[in-house]
């Protein structure tokens, strides 16, 4: 049976925010993942699977582990062979998805349709970097460090605000409205379907270039400077948007540092903050039950900064 070919990440037209959000998480996993929210047919899954294939083709030890929509708690967290423990005293872990995801990307498609306790398991492990299994008074812990990427169609239901806040970045995606871009999407897709192997081979140079840029950014990241003026911008935005807690502040600083590193700079700028603030704050705005909030945009960000500084 022929293995299904995945459309190359570097050949995807448009959806720049999604691609950037994933790249920033690769540079700085402490950003804590990304939630991609949008209607069907907008390339959400293609982009996520594409980054995994890119890494594998370029010899990187990172892959995308997909979470089945019907996964049970034992399948996700793993389990302990109690019978073996009782017979030999040896703790034997029956690995779950959280063990498989260690050092990789964990992809939860239609995450809003998962049971809340499964989403809690994912987010707790992503935050702690450790998964602990407890069964019949016996516990076992193992490393579970991964980048969590969730996708969802909001028409099929929302995530609880408490869960939304645990994702570092959120990107709302819509179908491309630019006629030229839509035409390019069609042409590339047809070329890929006509000869996927040749299409993928023609992408190798761009893939190597992107991998090299990500690796350089990872090395540069610890050297990136954030001045007091930049921190003032971040604090002003959080206060101006009435955001609870400090998770958003820290995420914006981390994302801005990763972005500066990716752009081969040594210092975060105001433009970096403005560029990324929408991804960081859109899902952290307070709202009352049944209240509709207009999407946060770049103009809103700039207005708040102008008012407060």
From TrEMBL:
It comes from the Bacteria. Coiled coil: none annotated. GO terms for molecular function: ATP binding; ATP hydrolysis activity. Residues 30-177 form the AAA+ ATPase domain. InterPro entries: AAA+_ATPase, ATPase_dyneun-rel_AAA, ChlI/MoxR_AAA_lid, Mg-chelatase_DI-like, P-loop_NTPase. Pfam families: AAA_5, AAA_lid_2. SMART domains: AAA. This is Magnesium chelatase, subunit D/I family. It comes from Treponema denticola (strain ATCC 35405 / DSM 14222 / CIP 103919 / JCM 8153 / KCTC 15104).
């Amino acid at each position: 049976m022929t293995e299904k070919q995945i459309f190359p990440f570097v050949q995807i037209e448009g959806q720049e925010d999604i691609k950037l959000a994933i790249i920033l998480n690769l540079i700085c996993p402490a950003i804590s993942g990304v939630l991609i929210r949008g209607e069907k047919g907008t390339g959400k899954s293609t982009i996520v699977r594409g980054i995994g294939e890119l890494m594998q083709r370029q010899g990187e030890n990172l892959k995308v582990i997909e979470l089945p929509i019907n996964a049970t708690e034992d399948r996700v967290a793993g389990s302990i062979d109690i019978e073996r423990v009782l017979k030999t005293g040896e703790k034997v872990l029956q690995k779950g998805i959280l063990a498989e995801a260690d050092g990789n990307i964990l992809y939860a498609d239609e995450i809003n349709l998962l049971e809340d306790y499964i989403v809690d398991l994912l987010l707790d492990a992503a935050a702690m970097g450790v998964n602990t299994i407890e069964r019949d008074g016996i516990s076992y812990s193992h490393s579970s460090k991964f980048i969590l990427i969730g996708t969802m169609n909001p028409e099929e239901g929302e995530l609880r605000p408490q869960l939304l806040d645990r994702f570092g970045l959120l990107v709302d995606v819509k179908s491309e409205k630019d006629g030229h871009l839509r035409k390019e999407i069609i042409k590339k897709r047809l070329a890929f379907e006509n000869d996927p192997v040749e299409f993928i081979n023609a992408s190798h140079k761009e893939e190597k270039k992107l991998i090299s840029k990500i690796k350089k950014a990872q090395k540069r990241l610890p050297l990136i400077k954030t001045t007091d003026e930049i921190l003032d911008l971040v604090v002003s935005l959080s206060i101006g948007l009435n955001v609870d807690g400090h998770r958003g502040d820290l995420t914006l600083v981390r994302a801005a540092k990763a972005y500066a590193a990716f752009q081969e700079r040594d210092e975060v700028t105001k433009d970096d903050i403005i560029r990324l603030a929408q991804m960081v704050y859109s899902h952290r705005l307070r709202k009352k039950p049944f209240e509709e909030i207009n999407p946060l945009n770049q103009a809103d960000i700039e207005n708040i900064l102008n008012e407060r500084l």
